[in-house]
Design goal:
Bound molecules: zinc ion
Structural class: alpha/beta
Oligomer: single chain
Radius of gyration: 19 Å
Order of helices and strands: EHEHEHEEEHEHEEHHE
Distance between the termini: 38 Å
Strand content: 15-25%
Length: 255
């Protein structure tokens, strides 16, 4: 496969306009290149996940005309793969006894009398397995992008800071590094990123076409008023990544 993209939501609540913009960019970039596109549920953080949210997200994607090429992968079913990756990292992994407040020097050995809470990676010095036993997002994303053969990641600029750590892990594991595009985040009228935390409204499912058109317009595409299927067909040929707004934020003005 020459191009394989993905959308990887966390099922902590329903999709909102910000997540639709990200999904649309990743879908259009894949389809306009004749590539494949998959959906992965990043449901690692079980305590934060909401029952039924994954099914609700998939229903919304279907209503908005997205079609994915493989069965949805659930990170909650992938613990064994993450454990195996930690074994493969070998000496790069070290136990850490710190809480968030501590200045961590555990790479040089655990301080006397302290017990390990989490596992970290040497060089990157970020957590691979958390104190609560859950695998960290950074590790799971890398293991799963490689496992699923993802060649290109299109995602929100809020994840820009985590990209160097992920590239570091791909290299440390001897896995191919995907190409990355980070798209600007949609901000609400208060200047906050649209998110579940800022109570962005869920996507309406009864009349998706105008909302999908707005998502494309946020991405700099002059989308016409069309029904969903025709809108996608227009966008598959018209999509141009170079028309993305510059910078890391888009003012929605309307949200
Ligand atoms: Zn530490």
């Amino acid at each position: 496969v020459s191009y394989k993209g993905r959308f990887a939501p966390s099922p902590t609540g329903p999709l909102h306009l910000g997540s639709l913009v990200t999904a649309t960019a990743s879908y259009l970039e894949a389809r306009s290149r004749g590539g494949q596109w998959i959906v992965r549920m990043e449901d690692l953080d079980r305590p934060r996940c909401q029952a039924g949210a994954a099914a609700e997200i998939l229903r919304a994607l279907e209503a908005y005309g997205f079609a994915w090429d493989e069965p949805v992968l659930y990170q909650s079913a992938r613990d064994e793969a993450y454990a195996e990756a930690i074994r493969r990292l070998g000496d790069l992994v070290y136990p850490c006894a710190c809480s968030r407040r501590d200045v961590c020097r555990c790479a040089e050995g655990l301080p006397p009398g302290r017990t390990a809470r989490s596992l970290k990676v040497r060089g990157g010095d970020f957590v691979l397995r958390r104190a609560d036993g859950l695998y960290a997002y950074q590790l799971a994303v890398v293991v799963d992008d490689a496992f699923q053969g993802v060649t290109d990641v299109v995602r929100g600029a809020d994840l820009l800071d985590s990209t160097p750590g992920q590239i570091y892990l791909f290299r440390a594991l001897g896995l191919p590094v995907p190409r990355y595009v980070h798209i600007p985040l949609v901000r609400d009228a208060q200047g906050d990123k649209l998110s579940k935390q800022t109570l962005a409204p869920p996507l309406p499912l009864d009349d998706p076409a105008p909302v999908l058109r707005r998502a494309m317009q946020f991405l700099g595409q002059e989308a016409p008023a069309l029904p969903v299927n025709e809108l996608w067909n227009w966008a598959f040929s018209a999509w141009d990544l170079r028309r993305l707004p510059h910078g890391t934020e888009i003012d929605s003005g309307l949200c």
